[in-house]
Design brief:
Elements (H helix, E strand, L loop, with lengths): L1 H37 L20 H13 L2 H6 L5 H35 L4 H26 L10 H25 L10 H26 L29 H4 L1 H28 L4 H26 L4 H32 L1
Length: 349
């Protein structure tokens, strides 16, 4: 049995390496997307051309034509009316790189997948899961344009709901790719019981909720206000928290409520994650599980500290991008810790 498992794992090693490379590319995509948002570059390309859009403007005439398209949208008229062509080029390149990197991820996933399928290295249920991931990647491109389109006619920015959907789907794809890569190295069924298993799932859910809450902070530019911690304008709960009607819109559109929710959901998630780390260390799990748990604890404390620093300094681009990258690091370590803890628990049995 051990020999068969080892042979199966050896045969899938190229697939695992490929999946980890794809996960790293998705991680980079999230960071590039964060910089694109922080530099307000996301609306600089006003058309969706999946194929011809890979070629950037060449020569002054093409640049001026692209700039003229941007000048027709509300963001230019209401916020950037004094922008020069050279300034436009700066925001254009960020959005161009963001879209180009997305296309490269698609190719980096689709072409090796086709080879693995033709060669028979992946088949059956694994092939179906990989094709499902490819379809999600295509959907993500469409969601990205759906998000951009929300800021081209009546708004000067994109819809925070669509921004959260775009970021959320990116992280779902990232998590699924990482999870599959880890499971290919350990084909046994995970343990479904015990404190580490329960706390692990709760921690992952809390991290996901924190990231989505952060997406609404980004979508409403809430990080540029209430730049103090722990109080907001001298109060724990800011004035105007529930001013919008219907009440539920405060959770997604009210700047004061959105920022308050994100900061305290993040703190609560940190406390839960530390309890999870403690349960792994106290539960007699193996060294690898304890090591991953320790890294998760360090990462989530660092992420909260980075978030507070970013807030206090009114969201400089470098810190804002680092904070978004840190969210993906925390998610990745939580997935790895959960996997290691379940594997350790199975071994202990």
């Amino acid at each position: 049995m051990a020999t068969t498992m080892a042979a199966a794992d050896d045969g899938l090693r190229p697939v695992r390496i490929w999946l980890w490379i794809c996960a790293a590319m998705i991680f980079a995509m999230v960071v590039i997307g964060g910089v694109t948002r922080l530099t307000e570059s996301g609306l600089s390309i006003t058309e969706w051309r999946p194929v011809t859009g890979t070629i950037p403007p060449i020569g002054r005439e093409q640049w001026e034509a692209e700039f003229a398209k941007y000048q027709r949208i509300p963001e230019f008229r209401e916020k950037n009316a004094s922008m020069t062509l050279d300034e436009f080029k700066t925001i254009f390149w960020w959005e161009y790189v963001h879209r180009l990197w997305g296309r490269l991820i698609g190719l980096a996933f689709a072409l090796p997948l086709a080879w693995f399928a033709v060669s028979g290295r992946v088949r059956g249920g694994l092939l179906a899961r990989l094709c499902g991931l490819l379809a999600l990647g295509g959907l993500q491109g469409a969601v990205g344009w759906w998000m951009v389109a929300s800021g081209l006619v009546e708004r000067t920015d994109v819809s925070p709901y669509r921004l959260a959907t775009h970021l959320g789907l990116a992280l779902v794809i990232f998590a699924l790719v990482q999870r599959l890569a880890m499971r290919l190295g350990d084909r046994r069924e995970p343990l479904a019981r015990g404190a580490p298993a329960v706390l692990g799932r709760a921690t992952l859910a809390a991290i996901a909720l924190t990231i989505l809450a952060g997406a609404f902070v980004a979508g409403t530019d809430a990080g540029f206000t209430y730049n103090s911690f722990p109080l907001m304008d001298g109060r724990f709960v800011p004035a105007g928290y529930g001013d919008l009607a219907p009440w539920w819109t405060n959770l997604f559109e009210n700047v004061a409520a959105v920022q308050f929710n994100h900061r305290w959901i993040a703190v609560g998630t940190m406390v839960l994650a530390i309890a999870y780390v403690g349960s792994i260390h106290a539960g007699g799990l193996d060294a690898r599980a304890r090591r991953m748990a320790s890294w998760l604890g360090v990462a989530i404390i660092g992420q909260v500290a980075l978030g507070i620093s970013t807030l206090l300094l009114a969201v400089p681009v470098a810190l804002g991008a680092a904070h978004q990258a840190g969210a993906v690091v925390v998610l990745s370590l939580a997935l790895a810790t959960h996997h290691a803890a379940l594997r350790s628990a199975r071994t202990a049995r």
